[in-house]
Design goal:
Blueprint: H1 6-9, H2 14-41, H3 56-88, H4 95-119, H5 132-156, H6 163-183, H7 185-188, H8 191-226, H9 233-246, H10 262-289, H11 300-322, H12 325-331, H13 335-361, H14 371-404, H15 409-442, H16 448-456, H17 475-515, H18 525-536, H19 551-557, H20 592-600, H21 602-605, H22 627-636, H23 641-646, H24 649-657, H25 662-668, H26 695-705, H27 707-710, E1 734-736, H28 738-747, H29 762-775, H30 786-799, H31 801-804, E2 830-832, H32 834-843, H33 859-871
Antiparallel strand pairs: 1-2
Helix pairs in contact: 2-3, 2-4, 2-15, 3-4, 3-5, 3-8, 3-13, 4-5, 5-6, 6-8, 6-9, 8-11, 8-13, 8-17, 9-10, 10-11, 11-13, 11-14, 13-14, 14-15, 18-22, 20-22, 26-29, 28-29, 30-33, 32-33
Length: about 900
């Protein structure tokens, strides 16, 4: 059976169809490998060691750009080389131009882009990770696409445009306009204003590039395969213009509850809801057009297209729901959003692309075709996509619940682990399906696709989609209507950029001018270099730098982020995902020493952490950081610094400057500027320990939070202990009162790596206190005589009281002026063993102001003062 009319067969450049088709499949498999390695690193974080090009962040950059430009971009181009000549009866502009386009798309964009991002040259922007040098070639390629495909439509005449033609023209025109918004403008516009423009591209990449071309395939393949026209021309037009009018208005819904003007946010939320209605109309039209073909049509291309239509409905309704404030406050930054994006790109768009690719492939007389492999591909991909979507959606709900109820952050990491494992297995199903797809289009007899069509469709079907011509005399009116609508579409796009980009930029600039303190501190050269390291390693894809105007964010992280705080960020690093906590106020929450150890061996200090190791930034040990490691830690210490330096006067002045700004006043009304639960605080103001949780809970808490430093049995010999200064305490050599343990667990120990644990309950604290007291076994040593205690008291008064205080409370007159800011020990509430006390006086305590005393005290005096200090312990306070 002849499946392509002779009038159009010679106009389809099958070489370019095949070239882009094979390139699409190869880049897809490479992107899937990147994705699988990423997914494994969620529960095997040391899988790739400290090899930076294989780190989570860089691979994530390569994965997303590979899916969008490598896989979908090439697949769409392969389809266009088949569809445009069929739709117009005209050949594309030229094969030479096509070869140039193929070369630029794959050898000036994809291969260099991957090499550069894996080498650490990239942009930390969602769906815009390729560096600016590659972006230039993407714009050139998009321009060549317009030159290659648009002239055929205009030569045919606008009055005969078919539905697919509208979507193709719209995608080629609007993508060129939208691309710079997220790829170039954020490099020129700082902070929150840059994020507003970035949000436009985050959504327009899907809405104006991926979705129109995917829908062009659906509207093309369905009538071509069923032999029946689209159900409703009116619904087709309504869906098309609804898409292009509303999609550009959606972008800011990625930043709901941020400092971006609320009017822009509400516009995006409303547009998202309306877009959901439009999608229901489009899907209804498509499903009605497939009536009689069944949910699982016999023809494999139509089968993929039918499932794409169903996925389109689900993902669009989900997107409209998650844009609403009530759901957004809970699920934003969680795996719910990741499930949504995967269903969009690997469900809806990928199934459409596969359907279009198979449809074109079946009509290449010399192409190999393996129907059995394609059936396997369909089954594996359907199961894989559904499993991944359901799994990540549930994971997102679990994370949302834990974040909202204030649970410790690592609880969400721990509880997500089973879902992340399932995600990898679903990814393996997807990988198997894509391999089967490659096999299906590269093996089997040549020309077998045409024979399969003959077997699958016993009744003749329309191989060429021929639009019904307008009645005589109506052509000019129809042409003018398209021109008017096209001009309106461009005007609406410009309006969306103005409403969601330019206007917020002006408002944020005014806010910055009104609220910023005079001459806020910028970044030094070294801190700027550290910011580059942070960006290139993809840290913004795990940690946000935007505290939102929600109760959960304010309680956990502190005052919401103001526009002026990011005024020097080119480009912004707001992020759209929280695997780790927000870092907007990360400065001064940890010691420099802790940061180095955490970067070098994350699980040494935080056993549940899944952060990649950055040992490559060190010369073999965390106490030998390279300049890049020093710069990165210096940058981390700047986060929140400008607001902290200006506080509280800066916030008071800003609040007075904008008395009518309800959202800004919410930021100033926060009870704490920096609510980081681990940030150390002065001693005191500690809630009393309650009834302890179970002993098993205490052991679990210890293993997950404490053993990395203090060791499994509290001996101060955890994997991180060798690098931390001061070294973690050997708890077996110390005895503590309950009040001292409560203070340390609530406030931390300033100047050390011991953080506060204020995100844990009183019952958790009590369970840990019981466990620590169980470790305690300080040996008293030889009995002290009255003469020794008297000598020890005199030595203490002469040499120790200035720091530790007259009564041993750690409140001496010099306590607050020590060169190393570790508070002197309160001897009333903790007691060290006799042997350890002698060792401290002989050797000092590295990382503190406690120096060796052997050059000033005799052995007898050392022994005497140890006995005296031990006698200060208030054992009745146990």
């Amino acid at each position: 059976m002849q499946t392509t009319e002779p009038a159009t067969e010679h106009r389809v450049d099958t070489l370019l169809v095949a070239a882009h088709g094979i390139a699409a499949l190869v880049t897809l498999l490479i992107a899937v490998v990147f994705g699988l390695i990423i997914s494994l690193q969620f529960f095997l974080p040391d899988l790739t060691g400290s090899v930076l090009p294989l780190g989570w962040g860089r691979l994530r950059y390569a994965h997303t750009q590979g899916v969008m430009f490598g896989w979908l971009g090439n697949a769409f181009l392969a389809f266009l080389y088949h569809a445009v000549p069929v739709l117009t009866g005209q050949a594309v502009t030229s094969r030479r131009l096509g070869l140039w386009l193929f070369g630029i798309w794959n050898f000036a964009v994809m291969i260099p882009g991957w090499i550069l991002v894996l080498a650490g040259v990239s942009q930390p922007l969602e769906w815009a990770e390729f560096p600016l040098a590659v972006d230039v070639f993407i714009l050139i390629a998009l321009g060549l696409c317009a030159l290659q495909f648009l002239p055929a439509f205009f030569r045919r005449g606008l009055e005969t445009l078919y539905v697919s033609s509208w979507y193709i023209i719209g995608a080629l025109v609007f993508t060129i306009m939208a691309f710079p918004m997220g790829n170039i403008v954020p490099e020129l516009v700082p902070g929150a204003a840059g994020a507003a423009f970035s949000g436009l591209w985050i959504h327009d990449a899907v809405g104006l590039f991926v979705t129109p071309l995917a829908l062009a395939i659906l509207y093309f393949v369905i009538p071509a395969s069923t032999g029946r026209p689209i159900f409703s021309h009116f619904l087709s037009m309504l869906g098309f213009w609804g898409l292009f009018f509303l999609y550009p208005l959606n972008g800011t819904h990625h930043y709901v509850f941020s400092v971006i003007p609320m009017a822009a946010q509400i516009s995006a939320i409303a547009a998202s809801a309306l877009l959901g209605v439009i999608v229901v109309i489009v899907v209804t039209n498509l499903l009605m057009s497939m009536r009689g073909a069944g949910v699982f049509p016999r023809e494999v291309a139509l089968r993929f297209v039918a499932m794409s239509t169903i996925f389109y409905l689900i993902v669009s309704v989900q997107g409209a729901m998650q844009a609403q404030m009530s759901l957004q406050r809970a699920v934003h930054f969680t795996d719910w959003v990741v499930a949504h994006s995967h269903l969009a790109m690997l469900g809806f768009a990928t199934f459409a692309a596969i359907g279009g690719l198979i449809h074109a492939w079946q009509r290449i007389s010399w192409a190999r075709y393996n129907a059995a492999a394609l059936s396997w591909a369909y089954g594996l991909l359907v199961v894989g996509v559904i499993a991944m979507f359901v799994d990540l959606t549930v994971a997102g709900l679990v994370q949302a619940e834990l974040w909202l109820d204030g649970s410790p952050w690592l609880d969400s990491v721990r509880d997500s682990r089973p879902y992340w494992i399932v995600r990898t297995f679903s990814g393996l199903l997807l990988g198997g399906g894509f391999v089967a797809l490659l096999v299906g289009l590269t093996t089997g007899p040549r020309g077998a696709g045409a024979q399969t069509l003959a077997n699958d469709r016993p009744e003749p079907a329309a191989a060429v989609v021929t639009p019904r011509l307008a009645p005589a005399g109506a052509g000019r009116v129809l042409t003018m209507s398209y021109v008017v609508a096209g001009v309106a579409g461009v005007a609406f796009f410009v309006m969306s950029v103005s409403l969601l980009g330019v206007w917020p930029q002006q408002i944020l600039a005014e806010q910055t001018a009104a609220m910023a303190p005079p001459n806020p501190l910028g970044l030094t050269a070294g801190e700027e270099r550290g910011r580059v390291v942070y960006a290139r390693e993809g840290c913004a894809y795990c940690h946000t730098q935007q505290i939102r105007y929600t109760d959960a964010d304010i309680t956990r992280f502190g005052s919401p982020t103001l526009a002026w705080e990011t005024r020097f960020d080119y480009p912004h690093l707001w992020g759209t995902r929280r695997i780790g906590p927000d870092l907007s106020r990360a400065g001064a929450t940890r010691t420099e020493n802790w940061h180095y150890v955490h970067l070098y061996a994350p699980r040494a200090v935080s056993p549940l952490s899944i952060m990649p190791s950055y040992a490559a930034l060190f010369d073999g040990s965390p106490d030998r950081p390279t300049q890049e490691a020093r710069d990165l830690v210096a940058y981390l210490e700047t986060l929140g610094r400008a607001r902290e330096l200006a506080w509280p006067e800066g916030d008071a002045n800003a609040a007075a400057a904008v008395p009518d700004d309800r959202w800004a006043q919410m930021a100033f009304a926060a009870s704490s500027l920096n609510a980081h639960p681990g940030r150390t605080q002065p001693r005191g103001n500690v809630p009393a320990l309650g009834s302890p949780a179970s002993a098993d809970t205490g052991m679990m808490l210890w293993a997950h939070n404490c053993a990395g430093c203090h060791g499994e049995t509290g001996g101060g010999d955890g994997p991180a202990a060798q690098w931390l200064r001061p070294r973690p305490t050997n708890l077996a050599e110390h005895e503590y009162t309950r009040s001292r343990l409560a203070d340390a667990l609530w406030n931390g120990v300033h100047g050390t790596s011991m953080p506060g644990w204020r995100d844990h309950s009183s019952a958790d604290h009590a369970a840990l206190a019981e466990l620590v007291m169980g470790f305690s076994d300080p040996q008293p040593g030889p009995a002290a005589s009255a003469q020794q205690l008297s000598l020890g008291q005199r030595v203490y008064a002469q040499h120790c009281a200035e720091c530790h205080g007259a009564t041993g409370a750690g409140d001496g007159f010099a306590a607050n002026d020590l060169p190393v800011p570790v508070a002197p020990t309160d001897f009333r509430n903790q007691r060290v063993s006799y042997a350890a006390g002698v060792g401290i006086l002989q050797d000092g305590v590295d990382g503190t102001s406690m120096a060796p005393w052997t050059d000033r005290l005799s052995a007898a005096e050392i022994e005497a003062v140890v006995h005296y200090v031990r006698s200060l312990f208030d054992g009745d306070n146990l």
